[in-house]
Design brief:
Shape: globular
Distance between the termini: 69 Å
Number of strands: 34
Strand order of the largest sheet: 1-10-2-7-6-3-5-4
Low-confidence stretches: 313-353
Largest sheet: 8 strands, parallel
Number of helices: 35
Mean pLDDT: 86
Structural class: alpha/beta
Radius of gyration: 29 Å
Amino acid sequence: MAIEFMAKPYKDEDIIKSMHPLVKEWFLQKFKGFAPPQKFAILNVHSRINTLISSPTGSGKTLSAFLAIINELVGLSEHGLLEDKVYCIYISPLKALANDISRNLLEPLAEMEAFAGKKLSLRVGVRTGDTSASAKSAMLRKPPHILITTPESFAIMLTTIKFREKLKQVEWCVVDEIHALASSKRGAHLSLSLERLQQGSAFTRIGLSATVAPLEEVAKFLVGFDVSKGKPRDCKIVDVSFVKQLDLKVLSPVKNLVNATYDEISTETYKLIDQLVQAHRTTLIFTNTRSATERVVHHLKERFPKNYTKIEDVKDESLVEKRLASKGADDDDDEDVADVADSSTGTAGTDVGGYTSLIGAHHGSLSKEHRLNVEEKLKKGELKVVVSSTSLELGIDIGYIDLVILLGSPKSVARALQRIGRSGHKLHDKAMGRIIVMDRDDMVECSVLLKAALEKKIDKIDIPLNCLDVLAQQVLGLALEEQRPLNDILDIVRGSYNFHSLDRTRFKEIISYLAGEYASLEDRNVYGKIWYDPQTDMVGKRGKMTRVIYMTNIGTIPDETNIKVKIDNHLIGYIAEPFLERLRKRDIFVLGGNTYEFQHTKGMTAYVRATSNRPPTVPSWYSEMLPLSFDLAMEIQKFRRLMDEHLRYDAAKKDVLDFIHSYLYVDEYSANSIYEYFKEQYSFAEIPHDKRIIIEHVSEGSQKRIVFHTLFGRRANDVLSRAVAFAVSKINKKDVEMGVTDNGFYLAMPGNIQAARAFSMIKSKDLRRLMGIALDKTEVLNRRFRHCAARALMILRSYKGHTKSVGKQQSSSRILLSAIRKISNEFPILEEARREVLEDLMDIRHAQEVIEQIEKGNIEVKESFTDIPSPFAFNLVLMGYSDIMKMEDKMAFLKRMHNMVLAKIELKKRKSQ
């Protein structure tokens, strides 16, 4: 069978025939029939067939996995055959989701018990980092038959001597939100944990996924490899990801995004949001940053206070009137209602003094209590609208949502569908999404994204392979279980899809590190944790403390904190660590309204110097902003090429508009805006696309700014820009200023920049080596090495009850990195840090493909020279100014540049006549 898609569902009568009478009675009374994923999956699970189920939120996929399992366990319970062991493990990436599933399982079990008129003795338990010691002890005495957990707690249980016995005969493992795990090191860690569990008994694997691609790769990730046969284990794929109807639209708040003022766009945007919210019962709004989430909540409450504040029934209604009267308010004074609402509620929607806020904010920087409060109120229908960044993308139960608004591009088709899929939570509900765009680049991007979503073109996820830090941690876990031959450990590891191609030499290097063969590392408190006997080829644990060290430092999520920013010893403020990763020496950034030049770091302190008259090279939102997926970028580039062809052949405006309407799903305003945008670019310069890269030289006095129109997404552009900047610095013997976006990148420095020559110097076969040199001694490599060293247990976050601060971890990391370089510049954990930066954080694979296409002549590289940026370059050139210019000034600046471009185009026309 191997990996195969299911073409036909099972017949309803066959599914019903497999059901225990009690389960059948409960199901037929509760539901009208089987949901699409259930028609395919229930009998698979019943027949112990590995199954990946891809379907949207609210389509019944959780019950697809659990109905057959509950069916089996109810049958065992009825016959008094239920043993004190774990039959099923459910693994969720989120603790909150684990608690949701527990509730959603206990409810049907209680209903079945009511039907049966007796207890079924079927136990469901949750074990996460929040589970108390007493609850864990109780689980040991009476293990849950269905155990709900997270990847980290699962790995701990595998290494716990007593509890591991309860897992030896597990029959099913359900991995929820598998799409969110597969593309990260958490997923690589989990895949090895599943292989460790497989040593006890063969079990059925069930994966639950939202819309994701390629499903074959995710299926391989779920089931792993049969090492003896050299191929993936068998798995059936249930793909009903487009079972819901989609109602999607791209909306512009104004008729013309270029000519409108900032005030007009802002006012009309919030009016549009409010109109959409008021026309629906419950709305979920997604922004792309946490700060934008807070800003939207604030503006909606400020501008439309009566719409987002509810006056509750109170015993003494005069209290409400008195509070307003005390502020000198008229009955219709919205501002006063807002003031009273703000004084009595936070964004959480708290009830105080007769007022309830109908709007809530939800993002990762808010407290757990706040987020749970918002989720509960949303579930109960007590909130009209919730604004979130990314924290509500996964399938936490938040009740009924009938509209999702996306403010700006979600940057990937899969993410758009996951977010919009939160609406219409019931099977036959339509998923309704509205994407509001704020500029012309956003409009083009979102229009192409919408087309891809409706035409089911999903961007592909990248599954990280051969993560050596994760490997080190899990090999130690295997050694803690029992003594094993080295080849057996390698076979277990290669059973994981993430490690199926692991090189034996690399594996032996990890064994050498864990066995303490690098004696010089002991000076840095890195000691051997396993022993390896080359004569017998056996591996086992070393030292009494090793198990405790492992259990208290398990997992892949790195510790992060804020970084102090100082001039000498004077504290300026704080920046987030992911932001610091992006800084290169002499980069400019804004903090507290002032601009600073980055010099260097020491521990968790960044040292800067004040600067002026220089725009920031790294905007404050850079580390928080989601990157554009490469697949969506290529779809946009393809549209650019088609538009270029129409304009090159002098097609009439009506014909081009007809093409836009036939190709994209847009209204008249949007189609006209897109036409004008491309017509201006074509008339002023040339249109860059998937077959043509434009290097645009813009003169700004003595300063030269070179814009590379490389619309390949920020991750690929991060590689290309650093490689070109490195080549330019070698030619010009000085550092170059650099800025990167999804649509391209720019370089700037005084004097001439030989950009085309530098670009041509980069060869695809040398790119990885070149980037290795360019990344050496950068902040991003230093920080990522700390993360990898902590995962590989070279740096201990916790030891003998003491937790090491992030600052101390970073200091240890710098000293350790120096010691490792003396051993070998290709030490496995340092190599892993490089791999993580180049493959997970950046996208060297697609950057390499771009260079290869240039070398083969499939992409041409052309240069243009101008004193005004072309329309496609506006946002790239303005990128740095976003932190030091007010939005209204930025809009005025854009309009001024736009008018200058139009004037140049008009001048060209006259000269050609």
